[in-house]
Amino acid sequence: MISDDRYQELFRRLDRLDETVKEHGHPNGQSMGRIEERLRAVQDDVKDLKNNFVRQTEFAPVRMLVYGLVALLLTGVVGGLLGLVILR
């Protein structure tokens, strides 16, 4: 899981990259508009990821429910197999 500190660090790095590109330009000769457009797209993607990301605390009840259902299913299968073996 990505913590809020890691998001903040990513935003700081993106800001530094933006400042560097504005200051020095791009070595491959790409236009500034295209670089800024890509940088904004990355920033928007990171914001969307942060907003749409399921935290571990929110996921824990779902995980426990699924584990319980799988355990119940496997118990039934193992019980059925043992019943077949013991009856023969």
Structure description:
By secondary structure, the protein is mainly α. The model has no long low-confidence stretch (mean pLDDT 80). 84% of the residues lie in helices and 0% in strands. It is built from three helices and no strands. It is rod-shaped. Helix 1 packs antiparallel against helix 2 (32-52). The protein has two domains: 1-53; 56-88.
Pick out its properties.
88 residues, mainly alpha, 3 helices, 0% strand
What is the mean pLDDT? 80
The count of strands amounts to: 0
Number of domains: 2
What's the end-to-end separation, in Å? 50 Å
Number of helices: 3
| Biggest sheet layout | none
Rg over C-alpha atoms, rounded to the nearest angstrom: 26 Å
Question: Which sequence of SSEs, written as H and E, runs from N to C?
Answer: HHH
Helix content: over 70%
Globally, the shape reads: rod-shaped
